[in-house]
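Box S2. Input/output pair 1.
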Amino acid sequence: MTHSRLVRTAMTVGLFVSLVLLGQAIPYQATAQTIIPVDCNDPAQTLNDAIQVANPGDTIQVTGTCQEMVTITTDRLTIDGQGSAIIDGGGGFPIQPTLAGVITIDGASGVHLTGLTVQNGPDGVLIVRGASARLTDVTSRGNADEGLQAIDGATATFSGTIVSQDNGDDGIGVFITSSLTLDSGSSVSSLNNGDNGISVFSSSSVRAINTTIRLDNNGRLDQFGDGLSVWGTSTAFFSGTTMVGADQNAWRGIVLSSASYLLFLDTSAATLTNNGSDGLGIFNVSRFSLGSGTTLLSESNAGMGIVVSSIAIASCSSESTVTLLNNDSGPSFVSDNSQASLACLEPMTTTQVQGQPRSVPEPPVEEAETY
């Protein structure tokens, strides 16, 4: 065997041995995922202590009622309340904009909260500073500010049954380039909150497919509280069989303002009833679209069924179904500088108001929270 062949053979054997050793080493590089039990009914145990020692990928299983506020900065951490755990922030917080949650997820990615209730905090769950989190079967109630909030580039996903109720400000807030996705088959309810049921503000977005959304009795502390408020170049997309219901909110069922966009596709539908002003308001260079097969019912509202004003556009497919019924101020109003397809204004009646001067109260300016 020549010298060059010996060298090549040695290199080949060395490479083979290295690959074998590398393959054997791979299993030892993985970090085992740990389940950490916490019984908050035991004074010696706290959720915060468990969070401090947890590693990425760990699961903390919680039982009982935890009287504390916690911050999560660990990636891929799961907090599992097993369907009954309560995290209680202690209450006593003023109703004012703040950035603190009973559970705050600050910058961490892939966090999962499941099967628990958060209550009596400033915010219930706060996802902030680019964090990403999934919430499954979570209830947030009785907080001074938002029930569930994603802000400052945060990403939230809701699955299962999500309830946000009896909070001092918005039930759900998606602010400052943040996004919220509602998974297929999920149910989201935002009820009896001080301001809006869902607020989407400052280049943020909400997307839902095959989801049931209830936005009822919001605006307890703010006469301008809406069911769904989409503001400041923000977007909301509803598709599949998504059903949006907004009933008995203090002001409008749904409002769009400041170059925002709301789109219904497939067989998705909106039912806007018994609200204190208009069923649907579209303002300030915003756009509303109903695709083929979609449905809009705006009924028994104290204002108009639909208002399109201030260079706004309402576009409804001829194959969508729009019903504007028994609204106190009439079916619809479209300002001279705005546009609405005829399909958005059905049924046309003698009480239709289109292109005529009328004082239409536009939404108050929203202020995003700061930290």
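Box S3. Input/output pair 2.
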Amino acid sequence: MIGEFGIKNVRYVNYRVALVGEIAICFLSNLAQKSIVSSPEFT
């Protein structure tokens, strides 16, 4: 029973980490696109 709870807990943590990672990637890519658009000398 403890092992089963541990597995569920690990899956929940992994899901949270993956979700935060996706949000961070989207945020960073949007930030990069905005900085490229606002500074045309880099293109």
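Caption for Box S3: DSSP finds one helix and no strands in the chain. Residues 2-38 form the longest helix (37 residues).
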